[in-house]
Design brief:
Oligomer: single chain
Largest sheet: 7 strands, mixed
Distance between the termini: 41 Å
Order of helices and strands: EEEEEEEEEEE
Radius of gyration: 14 Å
Strand content: over 45%
Structural class: mainly beta
Length: 120
């Protein structure tokens, strides 16, 4: 079993910077990719960014140029940083990780989500 613990978020002023982290613990052999999703008020959950096992980064059009996804493979932790926040970035942000256990069984795990509110 694996668990995800997210940290960061909260109230951020317009133009500010968001920093989120996501720590994976448990029986882990390999993490294949880290993804960050968000769900704004009245909206469907959408992919924000993803970093794959070979460090390939993918970003939603709405955040390109102001978002960076990264990871620390030694600490099984993923990160999301987003600058120049605007009201449209208000959402619950979710971390999602996929990988393999030591017995080569695949896993995928969602974080509980963290509220990010962009407001002055």
């Amino acid at each position: 079993q694996v668990t995800l613990e997210e940290s960061g978020g909260g109230l951020i002023h317009p133009g500010g910077t968001l920093r989120l982290s996501c720590a994976l613990s448990g029986s882990i052999y390999r993490i294949d990719d880290w993804s960050w999703y968000r769900q704004g008020p009245g909206k469907q959950r959408e992919l924000v960014a993803r970093i794959s096992h070979d460090a390939r980064e993918t970003y939603a059009d709405a955040v390109k140029g102001r978002c960076t996804v990264s990871r620390d493979t030694t600490k099984n932790t993923g990160f999301l940083e987003m600058t120049n926040l605007e009201s449209g970035d208000t959402a619950v942000y979710y971390c999602y990780a996929r990988g393999l256990s030591p017995i080569l069984r695949g896993f995928d795990q969602w974080g509980k989500g963290t509220q990010v509110t962009v407001s002055s």
